[in-house]
């Protein structure tokens, strides 16, 4: 008999523990600031990933090209973080803040599917956090589009403001430390299948609710500072990705369940 349990990577239906841990009762740290933050349905690709390729050739031939490249850098990174935040909220609203009735309904409707989906979403968001907290370059000196990359190339924009420069460094240090907490899970259970880690069966990548909340706040502040310096306008991650449309899915499941119950009642009375 399937049941909804909070094990390992958050609440899921079945008994085998997932590969990583994410606190099942973590709280959303950034509420939407205005109704304009809602994305249309279906969301166009530009709403979340306007520069989907994420690759471009560096050039310093002219000042306009440099300015355009700076804009592209921060837009690519900001849009990617919007996608990350959205994935996080999908998992949270489906498996953590949904009601007991909705959890039971998901279990009865497609318990295996929703259990697997919970694990996939949790592992994926951990992978993305590890990616953006990677160094500015890999071992072959290829650029990584990461927090460290932005700090390396655009930190000098605030060098004339020592307190702001230190603020960026502190935010980077905090997010990098958080990424390190998750990296063992990424290295041994998500990106690779480490045999010893599998046999040990211990949760990896443990982080508290407060640490997850702080990461999202720090990321929003970091993006906002760089965005203001490069584009002259603010960018609040929570304004763009503060809402998920998971509520629509749960509502549809409830309506479907009610409709089936009504049909069954009519049949029994016939």
Architecture overview:
This protein has 270 residues and is mainly alpha-helical. It has one domain. Helix content is 61%, strand content 1%. It contains 9 helices and 2 strands. Strands 1-2 form a two-stranded antiparallel sheet. α3 (100-132) packs antiparallel against α9. The chain is globular, with a radius of gyration of 21 Å.
Mean pLDDT: 77
Radius of gyration: 21 Å
What portion of the residues fall into strands of 2 or more residues?
Answer: under 5%
Number of helices: 9
Regions with pLDDT < 50 over 5+ consecutive residues? Answer: 1-65
Query: N-to-C SSE series?
Result: EEHHHHHHHHH
How many strand elements? 2
Distance between the termini: 31 Å
Tertiary shape: globular
User: What's the structural domain tally?
Assistant: 1
SSE blueprint:
Blueprint: E1 5-6, E2 11-12, H1 45-48, H2 63-95, H3 100-132, H4 147-154, H5 162-190, H6 195-200, H7 209-231, H8 237-241, H9 246-269
Helix pairs in contact: 2-3, 2-7, 3-5, 3-9, 5-7
